Amino acid sequence: SLDQFIKNISQLVVFILIFVVAGAIAEEKTTRTIEMVLTKPISRSSFVLAKFASYFLSVSTLFVTGSLIFYLYTLSTFGSFSIVNFGIITACILLYILMIISITLFASSFARSTVTAAGMGLFTMIIIIPVVGLFRAVKDYSPSILVSAYKEIILNGYSSILNKPLIAAVFIISLSIFTAVMLFNRQEVER
After folding, report:
1. Cα(151)–Cα(90) distance, integer angstroms
2. Burial of residue 72, with CB atoms counted within 10 A of its CB: 0-12 exposed, 13-18 middle, 19 or more buried
3. Per-residue pLDDT tens over the stretch 98-112
4. CA–CA dist 101, 18 (Å, integer)
5. CA atoms within 13 Å, Cβ hemisphere of 133
6. What pLDDT, in 10s, does the model give residues 137-191?
7. 52, 177 in Cβ contact below 8 A?
8. Structural contact between residues 33 and 24, judged by C-beta atoms closer than 8 angstroms
9. Nearest Cα to 110, choosing from 38, 20, 41, 44?
């Protein structure tokens, strides 16, 4: 059941989230609601950071709640496995999901349409992240390890193989949000 949980989260849920987040800023540009928002005393930086914070909080809450329900169901059906190790898996997958959200929000900050932003998010998830894992020099930093190492984590707990992917994911999240803020600050809002 853990295999199915990981598969559903890493594929279906992330796929859906990309399409939801893609419209965060791009859709507001398309419908021109962003003009009204930016006339208020709110900075462009605050606008982008608030978008990320709202997705961060809502996705984190839903994911942790869903994971806890899954854990309790699996515990009652199949017996015990370590809640600490499952917590580590949950934290790693959540960080991976937040990384995909931040990349998609970055794309949404400069894309002219939701479809373009979603395409960039999907391209990152399907092509770029797996391809990075093929290069020996950066293979150990691939954020996909955060998802793929779940069997080792459930058996042995936290492993040092997670250190580099954790650093890489936090760096990508920070860079994506910083770049989204910078790009959005330099854009002219069409009227």
Report:
1. 12
2. exposed
3. 999 999 999 998 888
4. 7
5. 14
6. 888 898 888 988 888 898 899 999 999 999 999 999 999 999 999 998 888 766 5
7. yes
8. no
9. 44
